[in-house]
Amino acid sequence: MSSQGSSASAATVRAAVQFRDQPLSHIVEQTKTMPAAEVVQAMGEAARLKQPLEQILTAEDLANPEEVIKAQALRHGTLIMRRSETPPDPRLAQLIPADFCLTHGVYPWIRLGGTLALATSRPDDFAALLEHLPGGLGPVMMVLATEKDIHTEIGIRQGAKLAQEAETQVPETASCRDIAVGSPRARWIGFAAGLACLFILILWPNLLFATVLGAAVVSLVCAQMLKVAALLARPSTPPFEPPALPHNPPSVSLLVPLLRETELAETLVARLSRLTYPKPLLDVVLVLEQSDHRTRKTLANTDLPPWMRTLSVPPGTLTTKPRALNYALRFTRGEIVGIYDAEDAPAPDQIDRIAAAFDAADDEVGCLQGVLDFYNPKANWLARCFTIEYASWFRVMLPGLARLGMAIPLGGTTVFFRRAVLDDVKGWDAHNVTEDADLGIRLSRHGYRTEIVPTVTFEEANNRLWPWVRQRSRWLKGYAMTWWVHSRRPHQTLRDLGHWQFFGIQVLFLTALAQALLAPALWVFWLILFGMPSPMPPIVTSYLLPLFLFAEAITLIVGFTALSRSPHHGLMVWVPSLMLYFPLATIAMYKAVAELFTKPFYWDKTQHGRSAPER
Question: 540 and which of 208, 373, 536, 550 could share a cystine (Cβ 3.0–4.6 Å)?
Answer without folding.
Answer: 536
